[in-house]
Amino acid sequence: MKRSIIISTALFFITAAASAVRAQDPIPTPSPTPVALPTPSAQATPPLPNAPLPSEPPPIAPNFEAPLRPLPSAERVGVDLANQLPLTLEEAITLALRNNNDIDTSRNDVQIAEFNLKGARGVYDPVITSESYYESTTIPTASLIGGAVNGAVTQTRFFGNAGVTGFTPWYGGNYAARFDSTRSTTSNTNSFLNPQYPTVMNFSYAQPLLRGLKTDNNRRLIEIAKKNLSLSDSEFRQRAIEVIAQVETAYWNLAFALRNLQVQIDAVKQGRTQLESNQRQVAKGVLAPIDVVAATAQIATFEQAVYAAQEIVTRAENTLKTLLLADRTNPEWSRAITPVSPISLEPPQVSLELALGEALKNRQEITQLQTNAEINKINEEYFRDQTKPQIVYVARSGWNRDAERLWASA
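Above: the chain's sequence. Below: its structure in token form.
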């Protein structure tokens, strides 16, 4: 047992000593070299040598400079810039209200509503009628008792009448008056009165007591025509407000577009001034040549913005002309519009309560809704009145000249 412990201790110290010697003077040990298995297609390819890079890229037009172009032309197709049309905002609104087709249509609607109201009120105009004619009748008679002369009796009559009828604008009543007069002659020998003049005059009046007393169809149509006139007038005002708002928007859009075009042209001028400054500084060695290229590219960008601004001016001007002029053949289409009204940068000072009150009072949409509600109420009252029983008081009177008496009945 002791012998084994001694042998183990000795082996430990021998191993430690060998490790210390190996650490102080390492002995290189050959590493295993991988052996490539030969393949039938494997061939040894020599490595390609690295291509030498040039010290500087080949120069291409080292002294190239973009030619200086003139400023973009301000000309526009179909517009004579020499023949300007100075226009204030008030003049533009006046032209729009006078020439706008939608305004004309709304104005015609108002006139139609006025004619409809006159037509509805015309039901109370008295209707005057008149009729007259002449007739001659010959009746063969074989007997002398019939008063015949030469075997026939001839009767002639000249008849005429005139009358007036109508409705009363109050309480739904209606009236009628008629006058009939005749002159008749006969060849009958038995007639004791020849010629004869029978004359009749009649008067009548009918008054409803329940249905039709408070309202009837005539008064209903008149009230609806009044409301339709108010409705048409409100629609006309609404369309006028819309046109005025469109004209103001188009007017100031054109002013903004023209001002924006001027700003873009000034930007091109400033860019060219900057390019000249960069060229001088590059010549003195203060700036790098790349700054000249950057300034040139910036000028091209500014010139492109000028062309875009010219397109915006044309579109804004055409929009305003569409609102102001009646048709495309108007000579003002070929003139350039120049807004001359001053721009006010002061915002209106209006409180929220005042703005809401004015909006509720002046908005035409609310007026139209109220008018439609009133028309519905008129119809409701009329149809409710139609559910009542019909009781009519009728009065008649007349005069008959043949009977020579005046009669009346109720």
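The CA atoms of residues 126 and 166 lie 5 Å apart.
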